[in-house]
Amino acid sequence: MDTISELAGDEHSGDKSRTFVFNDENHTLGNCLVSIITNYEDVMFCGYTVPHPAEQKMHLRIQTSGPRAIDVLQRGLKDLEKLCDETTSKFKVAMKEYKNKNLEDID
């Protein structure tokens, strides 16, 4: 099963405006992507909805003034991945420092 698809009937709006459907996703991913993508200079609109709480789907709408919406989505997903990797790395360093400090306090 595909994780991401385009909303049916959206193809008439051109490559710069698309609604993507994420299966098995919710507000967590939607909010993160909107936070990242809305900061891009060429994005006119980015927003998401969870159409119904009984469905595990999230719709993400992207409208740009230049690049294709799919390219902006791919950029946003890559930037989110980098952010998650950086957060994980900093967390591991902080945990190591915390554990080392607590071991010193015991001695």
UniProtKB/TrEMBL annotation:
Residues 19-89 form the DNA-directed RNA polymerase RBP11-like dimerisation domain. One of its GO terms (molecular function) is DNA-directed RNA polymerase activity. Pfam families: RNA_pol_L_2. Gene3D superfamilies: RNA polymerase, RBP11-like subunit. Keywords: Coiled coil, DNA-directed RNA polymerase, Nucleus, Transcription. GO terms for biological process: transcription by RNA polymerase III; transcription elongation by RNA polymerase I. Residues 70-97 form a coiled coil. One of its GO terms (cellular component) is RNA polymerase I complex. SUPFAM superfamilies: RBP11-like subunits of RNA polymerase. InterPro entries: RBP11-like, RBP11-like_dimer, RNA_pol_Rpb11_13-16kDa_CS, RNAP_AC19, Rpo11-like. It is found in: Nucleus. HAMAP family: RNApol_arch_Rpo11. Belongs to the archaeal Rpo11/eukaryotic RPB11/RPC19 RNA polymerase subunit family. This is DNA-directed RNA polymerases I and III subunit RPAC2. It comes from Cuerna arida.
